[in-house]
């Protein structure tokens, strides 16, 4: 993908897949994923569900930039777990996604090629169970404005078909909203014409 594209492929909902080899069992969990802050909670959930598993390895991608990722081998030999998981995500061109693979050791060493194949295949199995969807890259903004300008603000939101994620209406109003990245400059220039309106960039998803 290049910097001018504002769509990407991800999965619609969590999914699971299993791969077995020489007694070892590899259970892969795939999740739609938008913010690094949520990784800790998801890992805790997986580890509490599989307390006797030997390893909990993962990889994730964020944004359309192929260099934004993180991998973790969780005690497996370097390059045998997180990297194969990531390579599947890259080959299928999926982003804003997290895959965690839980391994139960079966007593027989698989060797480096065997481990790479196992983590790869478990990831493929989980993704084959998922629905792949295309989404737009959206910049999320928070706007503050006086209640007197409510009609002007809501007119722009309706005309630009903007998705509102949070709103608070009082004398001073707050709206969190998502704007497709390719339309941000034009849309925000309309909001700039409203007296006293303040905008804050939050994040991109």
Strand order of the largest sheet: 2-3-6-4-5
Q: Give the distance, in angstroms, between the N- and C-terminal Cα atoms.
A: 15 Å
Biggest sheet layout: 5 strands, antiparallel
Helix content: 25-40%
As a whole number of angstroms, the C-alpha radius of gyration is: 21 Å
Q: What is the name of the CATH class of the largest domain?
A: Alpha Beta
Mean pLDDT, nearest integer?
94
Give the total of beta strands. 11
Count of the separate structural domains:
2
Q: Identify the CATH homologous superfamily of the largest domain.
A: Impact, N-terminal domain
CATH architecture of the largest domain: 2-Layer Sandwich
Strand content: 35-45%
Helix count, DSSP H or I runs of 4 or more residues: 5
Short structural summary:
By secondary structure, this protein is an alpha+beta fold.
Q: What can you see in these coordinates?
A:
The protein is α+β, with helices and mostly antiparallel strands. It folds into 2 domains: 7-134, Impact, N-terminal domain (Ribosomal Protein S5, domain 2, 2-Layer Sandwich); 137-204, Alpha-Beta Plaits (2-Layer Sandwich). Helix content is 28%, strand content 37%. The chain contains 5 helices and 11 strands. The protein has helices at residues 39-49, 82-91, 111-128, 150-159, 184-191; strands at 7-11, 15-21, 24-32, 55-61, 69-72, 97-104, 132-136, 138-146, 163-168, 172-180, 198-204. The protein has a 5-stranded antiparallel beta sheet with strand order 2-3-6-4-5, with helices on both faces. Strands 9-10-8-11 form a 4-stranded antiparallel beta sheet, with no helix packed on it. It is elongated and about 70 Å long. The model has no long low-confidence stretch (mean pLDDT 94).
